[in-house]
Amino acid sequence: MHFTLEDTGIPSMVAPTVATSIRLIDKLVRGRRLFRGKLRLTWVVQTLWDLRMLLPRLPNTYKPGDVRTEEEAVANIFLFHVMGQDEASGRFTLRDGKLDLRWQSPVAEQRTFTKARELCEEFATSMGGRYVPMDEALPQLRRLTITHPLGGCGIGATRDEGVVDEYGRVYDGGGSSPTAVHEGLYVVDGSSMPGSLGVNPTLTIMAQAVKAAGAACHPSSEVL
Q1: Is the overall model pTM greater than 0.85, yes or no?
Q2: Torsion (CA) 118, 122, 123, 124 in degrees, nearest 10
Q3: Which of 201, 223, 199, 218 is nearest to 85 (CA)?
């Protein structure tokens, strides 16, 4: 199982907002019940509690030294960006004329997500900090979001193992042999990847597309 762990850059213009958001999420995780209790009490008694932690930190203009740059606002914050490899166990089928995608087991329960969290916690501790999981504070973030969707028309040695061959040529399901292809029909995007790469897939997709283009331009010669 391969993972790529990166530092997610924070643009200077949103640094104060990000810093405030992280502090809020941290407070939600550590004192969720207390925080919610305060909000309910505020609604009932119509008295506003001190909710300055919800707002970006504003400098005291009467104190010349009380100011922070954008870099200082996030100097003690490290946003983890993790790319890993799932089990690639999803299968497309036709159900009542519609394309249906299902997995052997729920994707969010796969080991890769647990391992990614363990890595973040380990790195945060080693850096002298504390890992703040956003999904614990904001349950709606637990909904799986795919930033690098891959697969669906994966490469395979035959039509029984994949949708396209190594050059992106689409197999002919009714052909005379398991490796027969539809002439002139290629798949050159991320759907031909047979599984997760564990890294940003852009260059791999581009390389596969160039390889497919070479095969299309020179179908009778060997393509490297």
Answers
A1: no
A2: 100
A3: 199
- State pLDDT tens for residues 186-213: 999 999 998 888 889 999 999 999 999 9
User: Looking only at Cα atoms, what is the longest distance across the chain?
Assistant: 84
- 100 shares a domain with 28: yes
Alpha carbons 101 and 148: distance in angstroms, whole number:
17
Task: Produce one character per residue of 57-86: b if its CB has 16 or more CB atoms within 10 Å, e if not.
Answer: eeeeeeeeeeeeebeebbeebbebebbbbb
CA gap 193, 172 in Å, rounded: 19
| Statement to judge: residues 101 and 188 lie in one domain | no
Residue 200's closest CA among 212, 191, 190? 190
CB 164 within 8 A of CB 156: yes
